Amino acid sequence: xxxxxxxxxxxxxxxxxTTLRLTTVALGCVLIAACAGTLSFAxxxxxxxxxxxxxxxxxxxxxxxxxxxxxxxGGVASVLPHRSDTxxxxxxxxxxxxxxxxxxxxxxxxxxxxxxxxxxxxxxxxRQTELKITNTIDIPxxxxxxxxxxxxxxxxxxxTLDHIPPGNRIIVAMGVDSAYARRTTTDLRPHxxxxxxxxxxxxxxxxxxxxxALLVMYNDGxxxxxxxxxxxxxxxxxxxxxxxxxxxxxxxxxxxxxxxxKVRVTHEVAAVANRVIEWHYPGGETQVKLNP
Length: 292
Fold this sequence. Notes:
The chain is an alpha+beta fold. Helices cover 17% and strands 49% of the residues.
């Protein structure tokens, strides 16, 4: 009986040991399979990265224009003036890009060879040209390109202004202390000076401020007048004198009043920038005319 119990116990221990070994082997197989699967996935990812090591391209726009960049896939990206932006990523290898300023028409081109794991930077620097201004008139003028001042050219003098951005630009010469103004539009070429000789001085009107209208009252009567513009007292004009009122462009109501009385005459006046409205008062009736 005792031997039978011992035999049964040995049989149970052997069975348990066999089960444990089988379980250990099974777990080992599972772990090996799991590890093999992980390594395979990592290998697949590495191979994919090796096949497609995309490269970013940073564009630094140092020009005064917004640039439109045509991408290899036909898309278009915009980079604002004096800003940078990262494009792509792109596949390694040769790449050709063109950047254009839509307003000025200036184009910039570049060819690169992108290398995996080496981000590329494309710095676009502004091209420059020069303006040679000949001032033949008797007053100094300040020169503006697209509204930005670039210098002053003195009377009867020639000055060369540099660091001018090329492209289709609006150039304005304005009298420093007068109403003289001239404007031209031209296509400036990189590294090609543009010569401009200012035409003779022609006043826009008697002391007419640039961008404003000037109302000139000639009092040919023998009575002083009070001049009102849009209900506001403007000027008193004595007999035989001339009065001047600066007006903003647009419609205005002008009232003349005989000094010391309540006699008034009202006129609706259309003021035009840089033009002179001459008003002759003969003493009894008035007339308004706009200079051609």
